[in-house]
Fold this sequence. Notes:
The protein has helices at 2-18, 23-26, 40-45, 67-79, 146-155, 172-176, 185-188, 216-222, 256-268, 305-310, 333-345, 361-365, 367-377, 397-408, 461-477, 492-499, 503-513, 532-535, and strands at 36-37, 60-62, 86-89, 105-108, 128-130, 135-141, 159-161, 195-202, 207-211, 230-241, 245-253, 281-288, 318-328, 354-360, 388-393, 417-423, 440-446, 483-484. The protein is of the alpha+beta class. The protein folds into three domains: 2-112 and 511-523, Uridine Diphospho-n-acetylenolpyruvylglucosamine Reductase, domain 2 (2-Layer Sandwich), CATH 3.30.43; 124-241, Uridine Diphospho-n-acetylenolpyruvylglucosamine Reductase, domain 3, CATH 3.30.465; 245-484, FAD-linked oxidases, C-terminal domain (Vanillyl-alcohol Oxidase, Chain A, domain 3). The strands form three sheets. The chain has an eight-stranded antiparallel beta sheet. Helix 1 (2-18) packs parallel to helix 4 and helix 14 (397-408) runs antiparallel to helix 15. One 2-acetamido-2-deoxy-beta-D-glucopyranose binds at residues 151, 154-155. One 2-acetamido-2-deoxy-beta-D-glucopyranose binds at residues 255, 257-258, 261, 348.
Amino acid sequence: MAHYLFLSLLFLICTSFISTAGLPELLRFGGVEGSLSLDPTDLNSVSVDFGGTARTEPAAVLRPASADDVSSLVLASYRSLNAFAVSARGHGHSINGQAGARDGVVVAMSHHHRHGAQSPSHAKSKPAYSLERNGYYVDAWGGELWVDVLNWTLANGGLAPRSWTDYLYLSVGGTLSNAGISGQAFHHGPQISNVYELDVVTGKGELVTCSDEKNPELFHGVLGGLGQFGIITRARIALEPAPKRVRWIRVLYSNFTAFTKDQEHLISLGNSSPSLPRFDYVEGFVIVDEGLINNWRSSFFSPSNPVKISSISTDGGVLYCLEVTKNYDDTTKDSLDQEVDALLEELDFIPASVFTTDMPYVDFLDRVHRAETKLRAKGLWEVPHPWLNLFVPASRVVDFDRGVFKGILGNKTSGPILIYPMNKHKWDERSSVVTPDEEVFYLVAFLRTAVPGSTEPTQSLEYLTRQNERILDYCRDTGIEIKQYLPNHATRSDWERHFGDGWGRFLRRKAEFDPKHILGTGQGIFQPLSSPSFAL
Ligand SMILES: Cc1cc2nc3c(=O)[nH]c(=O)nc-3n(C[C@H](O)[C@H](O)[C@H](O)COP(=O)(O)OP(=O)(O)OC[C@H]3O[C@@H](n4cnc5c(N)ncnc54)[C@H](O)[C@@H]3O)c2cc1C
Ligand SMILES: *[C@@H]1O[C@H](CO)[C@@H](O)[C@H](O)[C@H]1NC(C)=O
Ligand SMILES: *[C@@H]1O[C@H](CO)[C@@H](O)[C@H](O)[C@H]1NC(C)=O
Ligand SMILES: *[C@@H]1O[C@H](CO)[C@@H](O)[C@H](O)[C@H]1NC(C)=O
């Protein structure tokens, strides 16, 4: 009965998109309350994202009770004379309105337990062992936040996903629509390389199970697919026994070439023989001026340390920090120091610039959340974030350093700048994500915060946005073939250039899985097609 009412409501809504009056009345029908909302507060809460600048108003918000709800909604649009936009929204941590659906319906996939809402996530299965894969996996709802996946798998067998993002309050569907990267990606590949199977609602409203063997074109298309081919309602995620603790180490460089040489050395370990000693996580960041002290990612250094750091002389005024971890538990504890020392010995950092800490694995994974709590307390979390994430080919990273870190940035950065390399062979060429055409490429992430009303001009949104443009211009003018991660492009030809050789495949997948361009309009790649009969 409820389902019937839900469908008839959808039907009425579809009709109302043509004559918009009367939408609120429809909500008085029973059976769907709390599922489909036209409440201005709900609409408002999904109209903005972490970027804090883009605004995209939908006509309604669906809080699905199941994958079937998602399917009914998309089907209603697909069958409608005037197809309306439908976008999944995970935790809304995009920067440029990517999860928006102008005048359409936003499917609010994530209800974190903090908000007390019941969600389909409660249907989560216990982790299981796959003989075929020789490893464990868990099935998670697409809107599940990674922090909740971790909580669940730890509680059910002491397991954990292998490949991460730095921040865990992101949804499974949201990161899998991009790639999902952190310091483990060099070894395990991005999160999209650690998924066995998906349930996906396509743009035709069909709920399809897909994997490498079953409907592989949809499976690979959706991974890194920017929400263009389907809404992920379930993901089968690879797990490993969760490490107990991590040794977390930072070392400093003033010589960029030495820094990247060491990073590339570290990510090559294990390529030839998986059992060779290596770190479990390799990242790094750039320190320009007070960049380190303002680093919100952790309170790693004791208060006296920044003084020490500022006394290190640098050439271009820029320092580089290599960040690595080694996981361990009771059985590997004894050999830990020796292994870490042996790995560090091969590196060429500034002597005596070794900063070490030690903590439970889970605390390490959740490190950014601690910083979030502090920033929230200061009113510095819900502010504009003009972030820019780039993949830079290793062959040009020195030019990038010269022109950007030692050039365009000047002395102020207004937020952390991450830099770490990855191995392309850990990425599946069949997925939709776009990376540079070289075996080793770097993520360079400018994670800056604009401070509204600041008297410091370098903290204004305009200044930082202009700087992002200058960085992109510099790469174009000097022929550095960067690719944007979490891409944001203004025109069709920019998107075409972004996808390069993959553009034809992307268009074919769109025509097959979302022929009416219903899904993911917030990405700005496609807009809904009105059917010819409606145009008449
Ligand atoms: C503080 C912070 C730290 C971050 N750290 C990292 C990091 O370390 N590594 C990294 O890789 N990224 C990182 N990101 C970026 C993040 O992975 C992406 O912005 C991701 O899209 C956010 O997930 P979300 O659930 O908020 O997605 P949303 O912003 O809600 O959605 C993003 C896109 O995915 C689509 N989408 C959402 N759910 C689904 C679904 N179920 N099925 C299909 N499409 C869907 C949306 O329509 C939209 O196009 C970070 C972002 C923030 C704000
Ligand atoms: C999981 O979350 C619950 C509720 O927030 C918490 O009490 C519990 O300690 C968490 N479990 C783990 C293993 O982190
Ligand atoms: C920087 O490091 C590189 C690689 O180790 C080395 O060849 C170069 O001489 C170093 N430059 C300086 C100024 O020390
Ligand atoms: C950075 O600061 C130093 C000293 O404070 C100054 O000499 C230099 O010109 C500044 N560089 C840039 C690029 O602004």
